[in-house]
Amino acid sequence: MSDGRSAPSWPDGEYVTPPAGGPARMTRAEMRRAARTANRRPARGPGRARTRSASGAAGSASRRRPSGKRRFIDYPRAGRRGVRRWLPSWKQLAGLFLTVCGSLLAAVAYAYATVSIPSVNPDTQTQANTFYWSDGSQMAEVGQVDRQNVTLSQVPSAVQWDFLAAENASFYTDPGVDPQGILRAIYHMAEGGEVQSGSTITQQFVKNTYLNQSQTLSRKLDEIMISLKIGGKLSKRQILQGYLNTCYYGRGAYGIEAASEAYYGMPVQRLTVSQGAFLAATVNAPSVMMNADDPQQRAPAVARWKYVLGRMAAIGKISAAQKDRYLRAGFPTPEPMRGRGSMSGQIGYLVQVAEQYVEQHSSISDQQLNEGGYQIHTTFDKHEVAELSSSVAAMRKQHLDPDHRAADRDVQVGAASVDPTTGAVVALYGGDGWDKGHYTDNADSSGVPVGSTFKPFDLAAALDHGAVLSPGAPPSPITPESLFDGDDGIEIKNQQGHYLPDGSDPTGLLHQQNDTPTKWGYITLRKAMEQSVNTPYVQLGEYVGYDNVENEALRAGLLRNTLQYDTAGFYIGTSTPSAIRMADAYGTFADHGIRHQPYSVTEVVHAGARLPGFQAPSGVRAMPASTADTVTGVLQDVVKHGTGTNALALGRPAAGKTGTTDDYKSAWFIGYTPQLSTAVALFKENPKNSGLQSMAGVGGYSKVFGADMPTQVWLGYMTAALQGQPVLSFPAAPHLGQGTNENGAPSPGPSPSPSATPTPSPTPSAPSPTPSLTPCSDIPGGCVSPTPAPSPSQTGVGTTGGLFGPGTGGQGQGVAPGPSMRPRN
Fold it and tell me: Is residue 783 a contact partner of residue 776, using CB atoms and an 8 Å limit?
């Protein structure tokens, strides 16, 4: 029967029907719960009976635990009350720890597996080209970034350990990441101690080379993952090398080589342990260390330097005694901060000459050179370049006043100085400077006629090949004492006995002019050289022959395309070699006939490797020593008795020649001692107008000769450049006798040259020896095959050419000297 009430439905679904009329019975599950509760809760005291009914206990248990199923995570904890309900068990804590660690390891493993080493940041590979003076000091840096990557072998081992001691002593043993180091850095900084980097050298290398410099968590995680992985791609030495080359050291210097130059003005190979400790300290505090030469910034810089030395001693890389010795020696104060080598003054021209030489003597392209990373050691002497510039400035200050004298405007100077025993270009003056808007290198450009300074090549060719004085006759021996007609306006004959036509008047004959109408009569070639008389050398050149004179000049060192020999003016200087080439060719006379090609670079280093092709050129025999020494003897007389007497103030043996062209459009002086050969050219050219202009009136002179301002520049420079060097003499010129005179000259007699005491005419029984002609084929290397040169109009100053090739055009068309051009002195 039913009393109208439904049977209770228990949570576990288990129900027992009570007997009719009897008390309600508990289910088995309910009885188990009640029993457990009774066991956990002992009686509160003796005699105290439970007052709660079984049904009440069952109801309470049912409310505490609505289900009989166990939960996967028993939290909050069942069967606990108060705070204990929320305290996890040790099993739960252990499980949580293992879960977190496993998740982290899984995340790291996933990140390690999926991260890839990115491409190298191209900015870290950008470098400058560094140019060095002949003494090894830095001359200039060319490039947007002051960086010169070096190999680890170029960095002294002790300097490497300066960085390792300061940054990451466990570098060679750690996996690339040092958690203890990070924690230690945090601890030291929290205590206010020395600031230490929490990153390993590997991490810093990765950050510099592959990543950006942002301070974000994702970037830091990438840094750590790549640092762990990079060891499989690069060796520890490669990583350290990359680190040293990519760090920023202050003063605009990226990489240890640039830092070494910026702070100590020397390559990294020469750094000491103490200096290396200073540079190591700059990595973390470049703003502090870069001004360490400032007394106000000195204290913190010294403290960091001492810290690095202390770390070196602590890890056993130097002894305590060594550390104390470095400390007693004192702080290695860096040089005052200076700007990167600028291109002002003569530096732009020096760099340009060196770059052109590198490209001409190697397979390095212009594009490769622009990518940077080359260390270029030059022949340029810092002291002598400065002295040459100072001498030009002194001449300008004394003679030129462009603000008040119109004639002095646009006057330019080009000069070069060469070691005649090697061909090394030690100094040059290319103009006012790139910073002044003058980009054409006057020292290494063709375009300025050399005038009478070409005459020594005429004489050398005559000494070597003789002269055909009569049609069909064999060449006759020529010496400096041979007599030729020196009068003004004489007609000139060729080897066939025909008179030369006037280039400007085909119907008339050429009447060669001198600078003055002096009636010289027949004079020796020595006297004609001393007084720069034109007519004897124009006639001599015709008798010797174009080809022989040209080849003599080429063997001495001039370039074919700068030789203008379409008229008789060729023999007296219509050609336009550069100052470098003229100084070098005169150096052939100075070195007894041995020619040395001019060179400006001694060594090129890239990526730590010395590139081939930059050894000093070997000298070759260009002419017999007797020829060179004879020409030197004649040019010594030019300085002693002729147009070059202003050079006597040098106070030591010197040989030289002045040169001035028609209408005074150029003036030269080229002179040499046994140690140095220097050429100076003066000319006038307005960039806005084409061609060279007359220098009449320049410096207040109605006529501008090579004996004046060019010789003054030469003298001032040579005096300073040779100071302290031994006074050397030239060898005595061989005695060649009278030689053969031009037809019509008086019979041989005492030499009229005032440079020597006249000697009696040889008697028939003891005739004067006649010089033996040295055919071109007998000279090592043979002759330069004669090739008729074109007859281009004379151009203005070219942009290139003296050292490497002919000019490629000038600032404007110049004057075309006619056959009656009158170079004098």
Answer: yes
Sorted by where each starts, the structural domains of the chain and their CATH numbers stand as 63-114 (no CATH), 145-329 (1.10.3810.10)
Nearest to 593 by CA among 555, 638, 542: 555
How distant, in Å, are the alpha carbons of 439, 478, 737, 751, 777 from that of 760?
57, 19, 11, 9, 35
213 neighbors 252 (Cβ within 8 angstroms): no
Handedness of CA 779, 782, 784, 785 (dihedral sign): positive
pLDDT for 177: 80
Query: Which stretches does DSSP call E strand in 15-128?
Result: none
Instruction: Quote the pLDDT of residue 816.
Output: 32
C-alpha 732/C-alpha 736 separation (Å) is 12
Strand 374-378, strand 129-132: pairing: parallel
Q: Is the separation of the CB atoms in 200 and 89 below 8 Å?
A: no
Question: Residue 252, Cα to own-chain centre: how many angstroms?
Answer: 17
The pTM score is 0.73
Both tokens assigned to 517: 């109408």
CB 414 within 8 A of CB 432: no
Report the length, in residues, of the chain: 825
Q: Which three-class secondary structure state does DSSP give residue 172?
A: coil
Q: Distance from first CA to last CA of the chain, Å, rounded?
A: 153
User: How many angstroms separate the CA atoms of 364 and 466, rounded?
Assistant: 45
What residues in the chain have per-residue pLDDT under 70? 1-25, 35-72, 105, 107-119, 181-198, 212-220, 339-341, 506-507, 747-825
